[in-house]
Amino acid sequence: MPIAPLPRPARGRWTSFVADEPRPGKKVRGLHEDGNDRHRVRVEHDRNTLLIHLSDEDGASWTCLAVDRATRVNAVGQGRTQVAATEAAYRALYS
User: Fold this and answer.
1) Three-state SS for 38?
2) For 75-82, which contacts have Cβ atoms below 8 Å and span 24 or more sequence positions?
C-alpha cells in the first residue's frame, strides 16, 4: 500500500544516528538516533548476506533488511524482536 507523500522537510529537520557509548571490554557495534537511544540501527554481514536491523521509534519492534551480497537481491522482515525480524527477512530472501 503506497504511503501518502510527505511535505518537503524544512532545512535542518534531519537528524543522525550516532555511535553507542563504549562499555568496558565491549566493542561499539550499534548506533542510536541522536536524542533517542531507543531508536536503534545495527549493520552486520557475513560472506553472503548483509543485514540492516532497525528498531521502531520506541524500540518495541524491529525491521530487518537482508541483502544478498552477490546479487543485491533483498527482502524485508518485521517482528517484535530483532531476531524475529532477522529470521523473517532471511527466510524471505533465501526461500
Assistant:
1) strand
2) 82/42, 82/53, 82/55
Grid coordinates of 77: 522482515
62: part of which helix (H) or strand (E)?
strand 62-68
User: What digits encode the pLDDT tens for the residues 26-84?
Assistant: 888 899 999 898 999 999 999 999 999 999 999 999 999 999 999 999 999 999 999 99
Q: How far apart are CA 23 and CA 21, in angstroms?
A: 6
> Residue 44 and residue 42: Cα distance in Å, rounded?
7
Asked if 85 and 79 count as a contact pair (C-beta separation under 8 A), the reply is: yes
Cell, residue 87: 529470521
pTM for this model (two decimals): 0.82
